[in-house]
Amino acid sequence: MGERGGGLPRAPPLTGAGRGGHVGGMQVLSGKARKAGVLGWPVAHSRSPRLHGFWLQRHGVDGAYLPLPVAPEHFVAAVRALARLGFAGANVTIPHKEAAFALCDTLSPVARRAGSVNTLVFDAEGGIHGTSTDGFGFLESLQDGAPGFDPASGPAVILGAGGAVRAVAAALLDAGCPKLTLVNRTPARAEALARDLGGPVCVAATPPLAEAALLVNGTSLGMAGQPPLDIDLSALPPHAVVADLVYVPLETPLLAAARARGLRAVDGLGMLLHQARPGFEAWFGVAPAVDAELRAFVAHDIPPR
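The structure assignment produced for this chain is given below.
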């Protein structure tokens, strides 16, 4: 569902004998190895190296994916240096997504609509192409967690107005959502986002749950170390789906409350896994799959609740 990675080019695969491999269980790279990574500040918490490392080993790709801690004041220079050093591209995480948007030589329509970039692809001349795969990842995660759910089936309510919310909201609207309501503790920020998105988007002080086919938590409430989201789900229709962008813990208090009411609940880990697929394919030439083995590998140290 959605536009897969904003039309990223796919690299030819670099796998097979004589092109890197394993010695004594250790990954060995050749001189032709492709390189990518994740730019953030900090970046030590990122699960992207574990995620991409799993796919690299599964598919026998001659390549590496590295954590790249870069302070904001060095971000532009670092990205240009990576392009010159032969990196295939990089993921971008907090706090660099807006800076990446401004830096790119070309932007996909998805990135322009999302207003930020989380995936960079470098061409042979050092050009920087940016896209946003967060919306794609969210829609794919919805299909995994709530099979058959159609964003066009009814109104959606999103709590929050941050960068991830913008990408998710745009993806839902583009998938046919007939009405989208933003609820944020700073109404002015939600109103600005509604104006930018256009279409059937409104802002409310309280979530209109009685009409919602989908409720999305795009705030940090419910994350480990944060207070739980204070919301009563009793007004939600029995067919509604509840999604949380938080994935630490895997089952937030919001998702536990949804399941207790018999509602379908979708955690935030699926979005993380699926949003990585277009970048991996563009950099390493292999279309990877999200499955139970990958999910268990990436979630090995995430508390269940």
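Interim note for the steering committee: The chain has two domains: 4-133+276-298, 136-269. Residues 134-145 form the longest helix (12 residues).
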